[in-house]
Amino acid sequence: DDMVKVHFGFSFNTLLDTGKVVIKRDDTKIKLWKDSDKGAGQEIVFDQAGDTEKVYDLSDGDQKTAFAADIKDQDRWVEGYEASTDMKDSGLTLLYRDTDDKDVCEGPVKYTVFKIDLDVNADGDTDDAVDGIVGYMPGYEGASPKISFTGVTYSAGQHMKLITEPAGSPISSVTYTIISSSDEPGFCMNSGATPATDDNDYSFASGSEDTVGIAAPASGKASVDFYCKDFGGYCEVRIALNTVSGIVLQIDRKIPSDADNNYCSDHWSGNIGPGSNSGAVDDLEPRRKQHRWRPPVAISRISRLPCKRHPHTYGPSEEGCVHLQRPRCHVGRRGRYLHNRESGGACACYHEQRMDCCY
Questions:
Q1: Measured torsion, CA atoms of residues 225, 231, 237, 239, in degrees rounded to the nearest 10
Q2: Whole-model pTM above 0.85?
Q3: CB proximity list for 226: less than 8 A, separation 6 or greater
Q4: Which candidate, 358, 257, 249, 263, places its Cα nearest to that of 308?
Q5: What is the pLDDT of residues 217-260, one digit of tens each?
């Protein structure tokens, strides 16, 4: 769904009152837009020849006007819509078709639509139901928690892979760099504060803070091991596709997907959080290393998140997840226990770090 600019230049002179100008796409892997914001009415629709051609008949006044407005000497935007299966396997062709319907001149440009995604179950592809940045919940493979811990003691992070495809000549390597990551101590709200250091919640190694992973293409893909170490973690990864001449494509990806920039997984927001049927409330404030403490609020105001102490458990809409002991919120780093007696022991912690607290 990323965009690259393309320029349509013409020097037809007197031919502009006859024949047809045609934009032809090889397949449906790409779309064409008048503007990069992809707003309503901005798409140039391929509506002929099996949805592969956009035709402007220059002998028709209205179509000639549309041609001048849509593409004549204009910068337009190509969107990658479906992933390529090979390098430069898609493209656009600008051509002139004479009155006998013969294509007498053309200018092609080839594209590769790269897919950069999360292999959540680390099986070497991104095609499984649990895979994908968009549906990812930190620490989970679908509904199954994958961060390893015993009681309140952390033992290992969730093993995944980041995969770029297709990756073949001239791509020589793909560099993955974690440019930002959450790093609060602990791995979930009720876990204590182990690990106790400010280690990044994501890395390219299970036992260290490796923030750079480099992959050489193999079997048409370039993949690196990728680890999540916190159920409330978030990060941003920069992916650079390299040739012997330098970087040819660079893009940043938020993990988990976070379109509204509230530091919560979009999957959580859409299924559990504000606006969903759960009736949860989210303060929409960024996560920070310095936190403000707020007094406990009414339980009906507490967001329902997956319980990290009791996997697959969610607090009902009127009360949080009930624990047998007072939960400790590690995010504030003060060792404080917050307890709401009237709710039967529900966690009433309320602070900015919504994704790290179990409600």
A1: 40
A2: no
A3: 118, 159, 160, 161, 162, 176, 202, 203, 204, 213
A4: 358
A5: 999 999 999 999 888 889 999 999 999 999 988 999 999 998 88
